[in-house]
Amino acid sequence: MFSSIKKNLTLSLIATLFFIGIIFITYSIWLDFAGIIFLLLIIYIANVDNRFVTSIFITFLMSFLLYQLANIFIDKFEISRELRVLINRGLLIIIIIGLSTVNLFHKKKISFFNHKVKWSNSISMPFHSIKLSYFMIIGVIISGTVFIPFILEQEFSYIKSILLFGLLFSIINATLEELIWRGIMLTCLKEYISVTNAVIITSIGFGLLHLIVGIPFIISLLFSFGGLFYGFVVIKTNSIYPAIIFHFVVNIGMVLSGIIL
Question: pLDDT band at 204, cuts 50/70/90?
């Protein structure tokens, strides 16, 4: 029992340092960020049981640092707001490369939850089960309907001018963010900690990562609930594709409603 408590406390410490690291990088608090990395390195060396998990967090933060520095460099160029946002989202590939590299170093296989969706299967809920195909249809309709009032407030000319950007942004952002959080991070963590803890950690990290695009702290934390939902969908379907679809619908709704740009 004592061993279990110690393990949970260590995991909580590592996860907390990870979250703080994301915040420090976002706001360019470099000296304090260096302190976070130093503490994580100490844990990596001293705690063998959590060594791989710690290495995942360290690699994510260092890759995120490179991502931030790349965006700072891009900001020096005179380019359109739309192109700047698309490049920002596309640079998330840096984090994917970093996480994939550390997995190769540790000789770990990443599944990415890259499994064919079995639409005829059912998703078990606390009080009932529902066919996956029905769940997706209902979920997409609800996700899209939320934005309809805001979209209707926009001028048709705005919708027309932003549509191509919205499609490109939603495809790039939904795919890369899901590959990072549910494809790699959740795949790695669930092998070493409970699925519940893995979903919670990746969901909070997912929410905090939105700070980098200028979303306020409280709203970014609220995005964590979206991460919980995406994590639930991935675990229940054993596939990342339904989560990407949901994520895409939400993103296109945010663009067309004027929340993004």
Answer: very high
Contact of 155 with 251, CB cutoff 8 Å = no
CA–CA distance, 239 with 111 (Å, rounded to integer): 10
130 beta partners? 123
Report how many helices (DSSP H) and strands (DSSP E) the chain contains, helices first: 12, 2
pTM for this prediction: 0.95
Out of 92-96, 106-110, 176-180, pick the least confident.
Answer: 106-110
CA distance 237 to 119: 9
Percent of the chain past pLDDT 90, that is, above it, reads 87
Helix spans in 27-147 (H) = 30-46, 51-74, 81-90, 93-105, 132-145
Spans of all domains in the chain: 2-256
Label residue 1 by pLDDT band (50, 70, 90). low
Three-state secondary-structure class, residue 171:
helix
Length of the chain: 261
Q: Which residues are CB-neighbours of 217 under 8 A, at least 6 positions away?
A: 211
Task: Give the pLDDT of residue 161.
Answer: 93
Q: Which residues lie closer than 8 Å to 141 by C-beta, 6 or more apart?
A: none
Could you give the CA distance from residue 96 to residue 89 in angstroms, rounded to a whole number? 12
